[in-house]
Design a protein that fits this description.
alpha/beta; binds uridine-5'-diphosphate; single chain; 6-stranded parallel sheet; globular; Rossmann fold
Protein backbone atom coordinates (compact mmCIF):
# COMPACT_ATOMS: atom_id res chain seq x y z
CA UNK A 1 0.00 0.00 0.00
CA UNK A 2 1.28 3.46 -0.91
CA UNK A 3 0.06 6.49 1.02
CA UNK A 4 0.23 10.20 0.21
CA UNK A 5 0.57 12.26 3.37
CA UNK A 6 0.02 16.00 2.95
CA UNK A 7 1.71 18.49 5.25
CA UNK A 8 1.46 21.60 3.18
CA UNK A 9 2.27 24.53 5.44
CA UNK A 10 4.98 22.94 7.54
CA UNK A 11 7.69 20.45 6.77
CA UNK A 12 8.07 17.53 9.19
CA UNK A 13 11.76 18.39 9.16
CA UNK A 14 11.10 21.95 10.35
CA UNK A 15 12.26 22.93 13.82
CA UNK A 16 9.46 22.11 16.26
CA UNK A 17 8.60 24.84 18.74
CA UNK A 18 8.50 27.73 16.25
CA UNK A 19 5.32 29.56 15.33
CA UNK A 20 3.93 26.99 12.90
CA UNK A 21 5.78 23.77 13.62
CA UNK A 22 5.13 21.60 16.62
CA UNK A 23 3.46 18.34 17.50
CA UNK A 24 2.28 17.77 13.93
CA UNK A 25 5.87 17.33 12.76
CA UNK A 26 6.67 14.95 15.61
CA UNK A 27 3.51 13.05 14.68
CA UNK A 28 4.31 12.85 10.98
CA UNK A 29 7.85 11.66 11.56
CA UNK A 30 6.83 9.06 14.16
CA UNK A 31 3.87 7.64 12.27
CA UNK A 32 5.48 7.58 8.83
CA UNK A 33 8.62 5.93 10.16
CA UNK A 34 6.53 3.18 11.81
CA UNK A 35 4.48 2.69 8.64
CA UNK A 36 7.66 2.47 6.57
CA UNK A 37 9.18 -0.05 8.98
CA UNK A 38 6.03 -2.17 8.60
CA UNK A 39 6.53 -2.21 4.81
CA UNK A 40 4.08 0.51 3.74
CA UNK A 41 5.26 3.18 1.33
CA UNK A 42 4.66 6.75 2.45
CA UNK A 43 5.27 9.87 0.38
CA UNK A 44 5.01 12.98 2.50
CA UNK A 45 4.28 16.11 0.47
CA UNK A 46 5.12 19.57 1.71
CA UNK A 47 5.09 22.89 -0.10
CA UNK A 48 8.33 23.89 -1.78
CA UNK A 49 9.72 27.29 -0.92
CA UNK A 50 10.13 28.33 -4.52
CA UNK A 51 13.67 27.18 -5.05
CA UNK A 52 12.64 25.72 -8.37
CA UNK A 53 14.05 22.49 -7.14
CA UNK A 54 11.74 19.55 -6.58
CA UNK A 55 13.35 18.20 -3.46
CA UNK A 56 12.97 14.52 -2.70
CA UNK A 57 14.61 13.17 0.40
CA UNK A 58 14.49 9.75 1.96
CA UNK A 59 13.29 10.27 5.55
CA UNK A 60 13.43 6.66 6.64
CA UNK A 61 12.86 3.21 5.17
CA UNK A 62 10.03 3.46 2.58
CA UNK A 63 9.34 7.09 3.52
CA UNK A 64 10.07 9.98 1.16
CA UNK A 65 9.65 13.70 1.77
CA UNK A 66 8.71 15.44 -1.47
CA UNK A 67 8.47 19.17 -2.10
CA UNK A 68 6.85 19.69 -5.52
CA UNK A 69 7.31 23.23 -6.86
CA UNK A 70 4.04 24.97 -7.71
CA UNK A 71 5.93 28.00 -9.04
CA UNK A 72 4.44 30.41 -6.51
CA UNK A 73 7.54 30.98 -4.40
CA UNK A 74 7.63 31.26 -0.63
CA UNK A 75 4.24 31.85 0.99
CA UNK A 76 3.40 32.50 4.63
CA UNK A 77 0.93 30.06 6.17
CA UNK A 78 -1.81 32.72 6.06
CA UNK A 79 -1.36 33.20 2.30
CA UNK A 80 -1.39 29.58 1.14
CA UNK A 81 -5.14 28.96 0.90
CA UNK A 82 -5.82 30.40 -2.60
CA UNK A 83 -2.93 28.37 -4.01
CA UNK A 84 -4.14 24.98 -2.73
CA UNK A 85 -5.46 23.86 -6.17
CA UNK A 86 -2.13 24.80 -7.79
CA UNK A 87 -0.21 22.89 -5.19
CA UNK A 88 -2.50 19.90 -5.72
CA UNK A 89 -1.70 20.10 -9.45
CA UNK A 90 2.04 20.12 -8.64
CA UNK A 91 1.60 17.00 -6.46
CA UNK A 92 -0.30 15.28 -9.26
CA UNK A 93 2.36 16.24 -11.81
CA UNK A 94 4.96 14.69 -9.54
CA UNK A 95 2.87 11.52 -9.27
CA UNK A 96 2.65 11.24 -13.06
CA UNK A 97 6.39 11.76 -13.54
CA UNK A 98 7.15 9.32 -10.74
CA UNK A 99 4.64 6.82 -12.15
CA UNK A 100 3.25 6.19 -8.69
CA UNK A 101 -0.27 5.46 -7.59
CA UNK A 102 -1.60 6.19 -4.13
CA UNK A 103 -4.14 4.11 -2.26
CA UNK A 104 -5.06 6.81 0.23
CA UNK A 105 -4.53 10.48 0.97
CA UNK A 106 -3.96 11.48 4.58
CA UNK A 107 -4.15 15.26 5.05
CA UNK A 108 -2.72 17.02 8.09
CA UNK A 109 -4.21 20.39 9.11
CA UNK A 110 -7.02 22.09 7.25
CA UNK A 111 -4.84 23.66 4.54
CA UNK A 112 -3.58 20.21 3.55
CA UNK A 113 -7.21 19.06 3.58
CA UNK A 114 -7.99 21.69 0.92
CA UNK A 115 -5.22 20.23 -1.25
CA UNK A 116 -6.28 16.66 -0.44
CA UNK A 117 -9.85 17.41 -1.53
CA UNK A 118 -8.66 18.27 -5.06
CA UNK A 119 -6.50 15.13 -5.25
CA UNK A 120 -9.28 12.94 -3.86
CA UNK A 121 -11.53 13.99 -6.74
CA UNK A 122 -8.77 13.28 -9.24
CA UNK A 123 -7.42 10.04 -7.85
CA UNK A 124 -10.71 8.62 -6.54
CA UNK A 125 -9.15 7.22 -3.38
CA UNK A 126 -10.19 7.58 0.29
CA UNK A 127 -9.23 10.87 1.91
CA UNK A 128 -8.46 10.89 5.63
CA UNK A 129 -7.92 14.06 7.61
CA UNK A 130 -6.37 14.94 10.93
CA UNK A 131 -6.94 18.56 11.91
CA UNK A 132 -4.29 18.64 14.65
CA UNK A 133 -6.15 21.62 16.09
CA UNK A 134 -9.62 22.94 15.35
CA UNK A 135 -10.06 26.67 14.67
CA UNK A 136 -13.36 26.76 16.54
CA UNK A 137 -11.91 24.96 19.57
CA UNK A 138 -8.97 27.38 19.73
CA UNK A 139 -11.23 30.43 19.57
CA UNK A 140 -13.64 29.04 22.15
CA UNK A 141 -10.91 27.98 24.55
CA UNK A 142 -8.81 31.12 24.50
CA UNK A 143 -9.82 34.74 24.03
CA UNK A 144 -6.32 35.58 22.74
CA UNK A 145 -6.82 33.38 19.66
CA UNK A 146 -8.58 34.64 16.56
CA UNK A 147 -8.73 31.88 13.96
CA UNK A 148 -10.46 33.09 10.79
CA UNK A 149 -13.96 32.06 9.78
CA UNK A 150 -12.53 30.64 6.54
CA UNK A 151 -10.63 28.00 8.50
CA UNK A 152 -13.61 27.15 10.67
CA UNK A 153 -15.89 26.79 7.64
CA UNK A 154 -13.35 24.69 5.71
CA UNK A 155 -12.83 22.39 8.68
CA UNK A 156 -16.55 21.78 8.80
CA UNK A 157 -16.75 21.02 5.05
CA UNK A 158 -13.72 18.73 5.23
CA UNK A 159 -15.03 16.85 8.27
CA UNK A 160 -18.19 16.09 6.31
CA UNK A 161 -16.60 15.28 2.95
CA UNK A 162 -13.59 13.21 4.02
CA UNK A 163 -13.80 9.44 4.26
CA UNK A 164 -12.53 9.44 7.84
CA UNK A 165 -11.47 11.99 10.44
CA UNK A 166 -8.62 10.92 12.68
CA UNK A 167 -8.31 12.39 16.18
CA UNK A 168 -5.51 11.64 18.63
CA UNK A 169 -7.56 11.78 21.82
CA UNK A 170 -11.15 10.96 22.82
CA UNK A 171 -11.67 14.56 23.92
CA UNK A 172 -10.84 15.75 20.40
CA UNK A 173 -13.22 13.20 18.89
CA UNK A 174 -15.99 14.45 21.18
CA UNK A 175 -15.38 18.01 19.98
CA UNK A 176 -15.43 16.95 16.31
CA UNK A 177 -18.68 15.03 16.80
CA UNK A 178 -20.31 17.92 18.62
CA UNK A 179 -19.16 20.62 16.18
CA UNK A 180 -19.80 18.82 12.92
CA UNK A 181 -22.65 16.47 13.85
CA UNK A 182 -20.92 13.42 12.39
CA UNK A 183 -21.77 9.82 13.16
CA UNK A 184 -19.28 8.31 15.68
CA UNK A 185 -17.90 5.78 13.10
CA UNK A 186 -16.74 8.70 10.96
CA UNK A 187 -14.14 9.71 13.58
CA UNK A 188 -11.38 7.35 14.69
CA UNK A 189 -9.11 7.87 17.68
CA UNK A 190 -5.48 6.91 17.11
CA UNK A 191 -3.30 8.09 19.99
CA UNK A 192 0.17 9.43 19.31
CA UNK A 193 3.27 7.51 20.23
CA UNK A 194 6.45 8.63 21.94
CA UNK A 195 9.96 7.62 20.95
CA UNK A 196 11.09 5.78 24.09
CA UNK A 197 14.64 5.39 22.78
CA UNK A 198 15.00 9.16 22.72
CA UNK A 199 12.73 10.12 25.62
CA UNK A 200 14.09 8.22 28.62
CA UNK A 201 15.28 9.35 32.05
CA UNK A 202 18.86 10.66 32.03
CA UNK A 203 19.32 11.12 35.82
CA UNK A 204 17.92 14.31 37.30
CA UNK A 205 20.97 15.57 39.20
CA UNK A 206 23.35 14.93 36.33
CA UNK A 207 20.98 16.58 33.87
CA UNK A 208 20.67 19.62 36.16
CA UNK A 209 24.44 19.88 36.40
CA UNK A 210 24.79 19.68 32.63
CA UNK A 211 22.35 22.56 32.24
CA UNK A 212 23.88 24.68 35.01
CA UNK A 213 20.83 24.20 37.25
CA UNK A 214 22.34 22.09 40.03
CA UNK A 215 20.71 22.53 43.43
CA UNK A 216 17.66 24.32 42.02
CA UNK A 217 14.06 23.29 41.55
CA UNK A 218 13.37 23.22 37.83
CA UNK A 219 9.90 23.92 36.46
CA UNK A 220 9.78 23.19 32.75
CA UNK A 221 7.36 24.13 29.98
CA UNK A 222 7.75 23.49 26.29
CA UNK A 223 5.84 24.27 23.13
CA UNK A 224 5.03 26.80 20.46
CA UNK A 225 4.52 30.07 22.30
CA UNK A 226 1.03 31.30 21.48
CA UNK A 227 -1.91 32.36 23.66
CA UNK A 228 -3.63 28.95 23.58
CA UNK A 229 -0.63 27.39 25.37
CA UNK A 230 -1.44 29.46 28.48
CA UNK A 231 2.16 30.10 29.55
CA UNK A 232 0.96 33.32 31.23
CA UNK A 233 -0.78 31.16 33.84
CA UNK A 234 2.48 29.33 34.58
CA UNK A 235 4.33 32.61 35.11
CA UNK A 236 1.59 33.96 37.36
CA UNK A 237 1.69 30.72 39.39
CA UNK A 238 5.50 30.90 39.63
CA UNK A 239 5.11 34.43 40.98
CA UNK A 240 3.20 32.94 43.92
CA UNK A 241 5.87 30.41 44.90
CA UNK A 242 7.66 31.26 48.15
CA UNK A 243 10.75 33.38 47.67
CA UNK A 244 12.96 30.91 49.55
CA UNK A 245 12.19 28.21 46.97
CA UNK A 246 15.23 28.36 44.71
CA UNK A 247 13.43 27.64 41.45
CA UNK A 248 13.91 28.33 37.77
CA UNK A 249 11.12 28.27 35.21
CA UNK A 250 12.61 27.11 31.93
CA UNK A 251 10.46 27.73 28.85
CA UNK A 252 11.49 26.02 25.61
CA UNK A 253 10.10 26.99 22.22
CA UNK A 254 8.93 30.16 20.60
CA UNK A 255 11.37 30.87 17.79
CA UNK A 256 11.78 34.63 17.41
CA UNK A 257 11.98 35.82 21.02
CA UNK A 258 10.98 39.38 20.14
CA UNK A 259 7.43 38.34 19.17
CA UNK A 260 4.77 40.33 21.09
CA UNK A 261 3.34 37.30 22.92
CA UNK A 262 6.80 36.41 24.26
CA UNK A 263 7.50 40.03 25.19
CA UNK A 264 4.19 40.05 27.12
CA UNK A 265 5.22 36.94 29.09
CA UNK A 266 8.57 38.52 29.93
CA UNK A 267 6.80 41.66 31.08
CA UNK A 268 4.52 39.64 33.37
CA UNK A 269 7.56 37.92 34.90
CA UNK A 270 9.23 41.30 35.46
CA UNK A 271 6.08 42.77 37.04
CA UNK A 272 5.91 39.82 39.43
CA UNK A 273 9.59 40.28 40.33
CA UNK A 274 10.66 36.90 38.96
CA UNK A 275 12.27 37.95 35.65
CA UNK A 276 15.60 36.51 36.83
CA UNK A 277 13.97 33.17 37.54
CA UNK A 278 12.19 32.70 34.23
CA UNK A 279 14.45 31.63 31.43
CA UNK A 280 13.21 31.65 27.83
CA UNK A 281 15.53 29.28 26.05
CA UNK A 282 14.00 29.55 22.58
CA UNK A 283 13.63 26.49 20.40
CA UNK A 284 15.47 23.47 21.73
CA UNK A 285 16.34 20.77 19.20
CA UNK A 286 13.95 17.87 19.63
CA UNK A 287 16.83 15.46 20.25
CA UNK A 288 18.13 17.67 23.10
CA UNK A 289 14.81 17.92 24.92
CA UNK A 290 15.20 14.70 26.96
CA UNK A 291 18.01 16.39 28.90
CA UNK A 292 15.66 19.26 29.83
CA UNK A 293 12.78 16.99 30.77
CA UNK A 294 15.18 14.89 32.85
CA UNK A 295 16.53 17.95 34.66
CA UNK A 296 13.02 19.17 35.44
CA UNK A 297 11.24 18.37 38.69
CA UNK A 298 7.94 19.06 37.00
CA UNK A 299 6.69 19.86 33.50
CA UNK A 300 3.77 22.26 33.45
CA UNK A 301 1.15 22.15 30.67
CA UNK A 302 -1.20 25.08 31.29
CA UNK A 303 -2.83 24.98 27.81
CA UNK A 304 -6.34 26.21 27.19
CA UNK A 305 -6.62 23.53 24.52
CA UNK A 306 -4.54 20.68 23.12
CA UNK A 307 -5.67 18.20 20.50
CA UNK A 308 -3.27 15.69 22.06
CA UNK A 309 -0.40 17.12 24.13
CA UNK A 310 2.77 15.22 23.19
CA UNK A 311 4.72 17.11 25.81
CA UNK A 312 2.95 15.16 28.58
CA UNK A 313 4.07 11.83 27.10
CA UNK A 314 7.62 13.04 26.51
CA UNK A 315 7.93 14.35 30.07
CA UNK A 316 6.60 11.20 31.73
CA UNK A 317 8.79 9.06 29.45
CA UNK A 318 11.75 10.98 30.90
CA UNK A 319 10.54 10.26 34.44
CA UNK A 320 9.22 13.76 35.15
CA UNK A 321 5.65 14.29 36.34
CA UNK A 322 3.37 16.63 34.44
CA UNK A 323 1.04 19.15 36.01
CA UNK A 324 -1.50 20.07 33.40
CA UNK A 325 -4.92 21.33 32.46
CA UNK A 326 -7.51 18.68 31.54
CA UNK A 327 -6.84 19.02 27.81
CA UNK A 328 -6.13 16.52 25.02
CA UNK A 329 -4.79 13.20 26.23
CA UNK A 330 -4.01 14.50 29.74
CA UNK A 331 -7.21 13.37 31.51
CA UNK A 332 -6.94 9.82 30.08
CA UNK A 333 -3.22 9.62 30.75
CA UNK A 334 -3.14 11.15 34.19
CA UNK A 335 -6.20 9.36 35.49
CA UNK A 336 -4.58 6.07 34.46
CA UNK A 337 -1.36 7.05 36.23
CA UNK A 338 -3.04 6.76 39.64
CA UNK A 339 -1.81 10.18 40.70
CA UNK A 340 1.82 9.29 40.33
CA UNK A 341 3.18 10.69 37.13
CA UNK A 342 0.86 13.58 36.59
CA UNK A 343 -1.74 15.85 38.12
CA UNK A 344 -4.64 17.76 36.65
CA UNK A 345 -5.56 21.26 37.69
CA UNK A 346 -9.13 21.95 36.67
CA UNK A 347 -9.38 25.70 37.18
CA UNK A 348 -7.22 28.49 35.81
CA UNK A 349 -6.54 30.17 39.13
CA UNK A 350 -2.76 30.75 39.56
CA UNK A 351 -3.16 29.89 43.27
CA UNK A 352 -4.30 26.33 42.42
CA UNK A 353 -1.41 25.91 39.96
CA UNK A 354 1.16 27.28 42.41
CA UNK A 355 -0.16 24.92 45.11
CA UNK A 356 0.10 21.84 42.85
CA UNK A 357 3.55 22.76 41.53
CA UNK A 358 4.78 23.36 45.09
CA UNK A 359 3.33 20.03 46.24
CA UNK A 360 5.19 18.18 43.47
CA UNK A 361 8.43 20.00 44.30
CA UNK A 362 8.12 19.26 48.03
CA UNK A 363 6.79 15.71 47.87
CA UNK A 364 7.97 14.01 44.68
CA UNK A 365 6.39 10.59 44.12
CA UNK A 366 8.82 7.74 43.50
CA UNK A 367 8.85 6.88 39.81
CA UNK A 368 9.71 3.44 38.47
CA UNK A 369 10.67 2.27 34.99
CA UNK A 370 8.03 -0.44 35.10
CA UNK A 371 5.40 2.13 36.11
CA UNK A 372 6.36 4.37 33.18
CA UNK A 373 6.37 1.38 30.81
CA UNK A 374 2.89 0.36 31.89
CA UNK A 375 1.48 3.86 31.68
CA UNK A 376 2.97 4.59 28.26
CA UNK A 377 2.36 1.17 26.70
CA UNK A 378 -0.64 2.34 24.62
CA UNK A 379 1.36 5.22 23.16
CA UNK A 380 3.71 3.86 20.56
CA UNK A 381 4.04 4.57 16.85
CA UNK A 382 3.94 0.92 15.77
CA UNK A 383 0.44 0.55 17.28
CA UNK A 384 -0.62 3.87 15.77
CA UNK A 385 0.57 2.63 12.35
CA UNK A 386 -1.29 -0.67 12.61
CA UNK A 387 -4.49 1.08 13.81
CA UNK A 388 -4.29 3.35 10.78
CA UNK A 389 -3.74 0.57 8.27
CA UNK A 390 -6.54 -1.46 9.87
CA UNK A 391 -8.92 1.45 9.32
CA UNK A 392 -7.70 2.12 5.79
CA UNK A 393 -8.28 -1.46 4.70
CA UNK A 394 -11.92 -1.13 5.76
CA UNK A 395 -12.28 2.07 3.75
CA UNK A 396 -11.11 0.48 0.54
CA UNK A 397 -13.85 -0.04 -2.05
N1 LIG B 1 9.24 20.81 20.54
C1 LIG B 1 10.62 20.74 20.31
N2 LIG B 1 11.41 21.79 20.64
C2 LIG B 1 10.91 22.95 21.19
C3 LIG B 1 9.51 23.02 21.43
C4 LIG B 1 8.71 21.95 21.10
O1 LIG B 1 11.12 19.72 19.81
O2 LIG B 1 11.67 23.88 21.47
C5 LIG B 1 8.37 19.65 20.21
C6 LIG B 1 7.98 18.86 21.44
O3 LIG B 1 9.01 17.94 21.79
C7 LIG B 1 6.71 18.15 20.97
C8 LIG B 1 6.12 19.16 19.99
O4 LIG B 1 7.14 20.08 19.65
O5 LIG B 1 7.01 16.94 20.30
C9 LIG B 1 4.94 19.90 20.61
O6 LIG B 1 3.85 19.02 20.59
P1 LIG B 1 2.53 19.25 21.43
O7 LIG B 1 1.59 18.14 21.08
O8 LIG B 1 2.83 19.41 22.88
O9 LIG B 1 1.97 20.67 20.95
P2 LIG B 1 1.53 21.22 19.50
O10 LIG B 1 2.73 21.85 18.87
O11 LIG B 1 1.02 20.05 18.70
O12 LIG B 1 0.47 22.22 19.81
Amino acid sequence: MRMAFLSIHSSPLGKAGGKNTGGMSTYLRGLSEALGAAGYKVDLFTRAVGTGDEGISQLSENVRLIAPDDGNGPLAKGDIYPYCPEFAAAVDQFRLRDRSRYDIIFSHYWLSGCVGRVLEAKWQVPHLIMFHTLGRAKNEACSGENEPYLRIAEEEKLARSCSLVVAAAQQEKDKILAYFKLSPEKVAVIPCGVDRNLFRPRGRQRAKEQLGLAGRSVIFAVGRIEPVKGFDLLIEAAGLLPEEEDFRVIIAGGGDQSRPCIAALKKTAATLGIAGRVDFRGIIEHRDLPLYYSAADVTVIPSHYESFGLVALESIACGTPAVGAPVGILPELINRSGGRYGYLVYDRDPVSWAAKIREVLLYPEPISKSGIDKLLAPYNWADAASSLTGLVVKLKP
